[in-house]
Structure to design on (686 residues):
């Protein structure tokens, strides 16, 4: 018998390939681009159905570029909404109607849209939000700062954190695949630090652009798609939240638990498509560990190099996912650690709080929430080194 | 799709509740001429409701759902408020998402359905209270009109935030004392029908729900025009009998009284809308 291979094409005319092929096997070539351009390249290969946009620095360019893809026929529906509140509701409508959706925002936009995120999660729509973190008001700031992420931690959305444009490209593609698994099917917020990643050019390895992810199949969703092609779900007919009785309370509570459980169920998929929830860098034996995400992990890697010069072995555990939090991976990674530094781009230290929470009772290391910069400050590797040397009592050679 | 999605698997029929079987056998599907006159004879697409006894919102909902020309392919988007208590009882695809974002959600749904099903007619109808439409959701309401979204927006104006216990809204009449306006409302009722015209709606109507047949006519016109031309807006007076101190059987009289004054029947249409309306009249669909 002769094997026949059917070649499928998406609506943009790109050849449909498996996520594994697209992410891991397809030949890649080197390109030089900004994080915003990497978003475009990812969306171009993601068989995206719909995107809604709104201007706010630093995410605007990514949103413009998605618009270009719409003009070129790679995205089905695209328009500018009236505000981030409107946009996040519009994109929710798109997703309910069975579309693979992506949108972008930053800082004040995130907070303006806030009411929508738990709604997305409760509606079980796998919308992907690319968040290019910036400061939130007041005073007004357009500068990089990731305080906004702390507000999102308990919305019921998955949260991933990209370090580089390359990470961002790969995460967006992997993100659709993981978020759309029928046993996951919750929204994903893919975070990068605004400006540091969105506006900085770097080398990005890209697969060809005539191949793309398999289109989203809304009929695999755990909730009926709102398209009148399937019977309306029973959940629409049972007024479970609208009654004051114990069954409705229990239903609401279990619904929320289930959203969190769905995030938990994303772990094996995320592990596969992200090649692990954490990344290790530096001397695996070092008892001085930086736990960080995003640009802070890039800077921590630089600090590890400088510390090497000082004769201090150190390493970085970069967290790629924040929700689900890589609990086991982190506990394993910091075994034997004496000092854990958590460098962050915000004043509250939300990542330090997370690290403390999950290491409580699992590590004897001293956890130091430093350095912390905010409001647009950069985090030179020297500043990180300085924190370490302060602790070890060594002379601060690198810092002027 | 079609009403086929309401067909019950033969082997499961024995276990299905009567209301569900009735939905398949006795509801009006696939018949654009359906209307309020069917109400006594056919299975309604609303299974009971949990509003106050005699609430005119419940009448309005029954008339509207009975008048949808294409219920098997109609998506109804709702907001928070008394109306949302009825939504779980509606046998169609309905959405409740947040308070005030209904026109935004509807915009997304409509655009994606047009893209996913270019050859099918899928009507998207928004149905929300005055607080939802004109106060908290005004931005989303008007912006969807500006963008010329092909959706029908129906406002249930009871001139109050009823579901939260009777607070003043933008549609309360000047001088009326409600909660949060303990000295009486200080400013005029918002003329939402006029805002709808100015914002680009192609068909606008203002009326009470005292006449079921008139509600049917208006709803059909609004839906057909939205399908082909652009946004349409229907402003219904559905008094909150509870908050204005009327009895369960007073709703109709209250509406009839207002028919003669601030809710006198008013209709507006653009030339394109008129064309569509004349055509569907000729086709016998109105
Ligand atoms: C963001 C938000 N603000 C306030 C509320 C509280 N709320 C729920 S229903 C409602 C009143 C709705 O009034 P209206 O839209 O006029 O509908 P009605 O109940 O009068 O039919 C309010 C204020 C809410 N659910 N969400
Ligand atoms: S409170 Fe008013 S609007 Fe709400 S159901 Fe009762 S009568 Fe109707
Ligand atoms: Mg009201």
């Amino acid at each position: 018998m002769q094997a026949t291979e059917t070649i499928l094409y998406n609506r943009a005319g790109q050849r449909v390939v498996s996520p594994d092929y697209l992410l891991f096997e397809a030949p890649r070539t080197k390109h030089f681009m900004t994080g915003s351009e990497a978003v475009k390249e990812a969306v171009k290969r993601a068989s995206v159905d719909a995107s809604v946009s709104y201007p706010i620095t630093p995410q605007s360019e990514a949103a413009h570029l998605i618009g270009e893809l719409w003009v070129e026929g790679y995205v089905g529906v695209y328009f500018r909404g009236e505000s981030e509140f409107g946009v996040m509701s519009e994109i929710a409508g798109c997703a309910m109607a069975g579309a693979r959706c992506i949108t972008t925002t930053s800082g004040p936009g995130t907070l303006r849209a806030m009411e929508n995120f738990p709604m997305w999660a409760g509606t079980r729509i796998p919308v992907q939000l690319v968040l290019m973190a910036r400061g939130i008001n007041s005073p007004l700031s357009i500068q990089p700062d990731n305080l906004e992420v702390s507000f999102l931690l308990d919305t019921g959305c998955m949260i991933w954190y990209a370090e580089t444009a390359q990470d961002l490209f790969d995460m967006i593609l992997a993100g659709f695949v993981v978020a759309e698994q029928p046993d996951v099917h919750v929204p994903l917020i893919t975070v990068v630090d605004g400006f540091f990643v969105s506006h900085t050019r770097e080398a990005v390895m890209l697969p060809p652009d005539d191949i793309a992810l398999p289109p989203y199949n809304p009929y695999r969703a755990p909730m009926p798609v709102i398209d009148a092609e399937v019977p309306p779900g029973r959940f629409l007919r049972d007024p479970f939240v609208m009654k004051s009785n114990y069954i409705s309370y229990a239903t609401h509570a279990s619904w929320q638990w289930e959203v969190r459980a769905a995030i938990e169920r994303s772990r094996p998929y995320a592990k596969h498509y992200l090649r692990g929830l954490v990344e290790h860098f530096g001397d695996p034996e070092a008892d001085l560990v930086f736990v960080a995400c995003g640009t802070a992990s890039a800077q921590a890697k630089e600090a590890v190099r400088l510390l090497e010069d000082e004769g201090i072995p150190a390493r970085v555990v970069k967290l790629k996912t924040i929700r689900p939090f890589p609990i086991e991976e982190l506990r394993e990674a910091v075994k034997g650690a004496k000092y854990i530094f958590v460098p962050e781009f915000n004043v509250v230290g939300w990542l330090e709080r997370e690290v403390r929470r999950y290491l409580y009772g699992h590590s004897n290391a001293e956890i130091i929430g430093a350095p912390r910069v905010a409001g647009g400050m950069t985090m030179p590797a020297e500043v990180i080194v300085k924190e370490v040397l302060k602790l070890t009592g060594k002379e601060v050679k690198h810092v002027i | 799709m079609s009403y086929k999605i309401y067909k019950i698997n033969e082997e499961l029929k024995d276990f299905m509740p009567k209301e569900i079987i009735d939905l398949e056998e006795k509801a009006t599907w696939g018949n654009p001429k359906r209307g309020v006159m069917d109400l006594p004879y056919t299975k309604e697409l609303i299974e009971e409701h949990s509003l106050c006894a005699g609430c005119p919102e419940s009448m309005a909902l029954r008339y509207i759902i009975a008048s949808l020309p294409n219920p098997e392919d109609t998506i109804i988007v709702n907001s928070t408020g008394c109306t949302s208590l009825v939504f779980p009882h509606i046998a169609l695809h309905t959405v409740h998402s947040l308070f005030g974002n209904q026109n935004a959600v509807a915009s997304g749904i409509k655009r994606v359905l047009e893209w996913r099903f270019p050859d099918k007619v899928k009507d998207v109808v928004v149905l929300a209270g005055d607080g939802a439409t004109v106060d908290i959701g005004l931005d989303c309401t008007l912006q969807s009109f500006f963008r010329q979204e092909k959706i029908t927006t129906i406002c249930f104006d009871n001139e109050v935030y009823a579901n939260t216990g009777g607070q003043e809204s933008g549609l309360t009449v000047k001088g009326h004392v409600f909660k949060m306006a303990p000295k009486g409302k200080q400013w005029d009722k918002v003329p939402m029908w006029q805002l709808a015209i100015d914002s680009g709606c192609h068909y606008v109507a203002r009326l009470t729900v005292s006449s079921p047949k008139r509600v049917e006519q208006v709803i059909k016109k609004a839906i057909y025009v939205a399908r082909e031309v652009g946004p349409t807006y229907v402003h219904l007076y559905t008094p909150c009998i509870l908050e204005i101190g009327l009895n369960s059987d007073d709703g109709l009289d209250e509406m009839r009284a207002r028919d003669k004054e601030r809710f006198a029947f008013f209709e507006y249409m653009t030339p394109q809308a008129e064309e569509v309306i004349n055509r569907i009249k000729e086709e016998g669909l109105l």
Chain A has 15 helices and 16 strands.
